[in-house]
Amino acid sequence: MIDFHNHIIFDVDDGAQDIEQSIKMLKEAQEAGITDVILTPHYMEEYYEVGTKAIAKRMEIINQEIEKNNINIKLHQSNEVYITSNIINLLKNERVSTVAGSKYVLMETPMLQVPMNFRQIIYDLKSNGYIPVIAHPERYEYIQKNPQIVYDLIQDGVLFQANIGSIIGIYGNDAKKTVKKLLKHKMVHFIGTDTHRPDSIYPKVEKALKKLSKIVPEDELEKIICENAKCVLENKDIDIPEPIEIK
Fold it and tell me: Which terminus of the chain has a lower count of CB atoms within 10 Å, N or C?
């Protein structure tokens, strides 16, 4: 499995507070069968604004500790960017990272309502050669109320990453119901843990994968947990299935 979304980088956001927590989480990730971790610290203007160079330096420190601790996981730099009309400038000025230097951009939206200028931001990203990936749609109240929004955005070229913990109810029953619906309607393209602390998500990955295997066929599950993310890391296009409208 490739973890598409997490907060393992230390001293950046509300995730790992120090290198010890980062390494503990990576040990847990290895035990859970994770081979690659795409590091996605928050970037939110006027709140979390650690730039790409500072993130890269922290990655170097973590990689040194990975080698010392014999952890067999490959790290990749990225961000979870809080959606903003300024996103093109942030990308071009290297304030935020695409996923491993690819054309894919992981974004977060407000929890309660559709972002202002959402369609315009998507259009701007696509026009500049980027592919938007929206993090954990099942957690947004506006999508829980109207999951058809995801279908419409996929038609516009947007991809979606679900949190593996949602399938076992970590984010509540509404998120659990919504992620099941999105999975059944072929609207999830990547899986991430969104882990922020040790002893939280990684020990539950095996249980969550068993649940997922009962919802989606084996070949589709392999694409969601690994193959699609591999394409992103290689900056290749993804052959996504045609989503099914939610009536």
Answer: C
pLDDT at 153: 97
pTM of the model: 0.96
Q: Domain of residue 201: give its range.
A: 2-233
Q: How many helices (H) and strands (E) does the chain have?
A: 10, 9
Instruction: Show the tokens assigned to 124.
Output: 């701007």
Instruction: Report the C-alpha dihedral over residues 236, 187, 169, 74, rounded to 10 degrees.
Output: 0
Q: Is 77 helix (H, G, I), strand (E, B) or coil?
A: strand
For 110-126, the pLDDT digits (tens) are 999 999 899 999 999 99
Confidence label for 220 from pLDDT (cuts 50, 70 and 90): very high
Give the pLDDT confidence of 98-107 residue by residue, as tens digits: 999 999 999 9
Backbone angles phi, psi at 13, to 5 degrees: -140, -145
Contact 87, 12 (CB under 8 A): no
Which stretches of 40-83 are assigned E, i.e. beta strand? Answer: 42-43, 74-77, 80-82
Closest CA to 244 of 160, 184, 180: 184
Structure token pair of residue 48: 């979390």
**Residue given tokens 């993310």 in the structure block:** 229
Question: What CATH number does the domain containing 17 carry?
Answer: 3.20.20.140
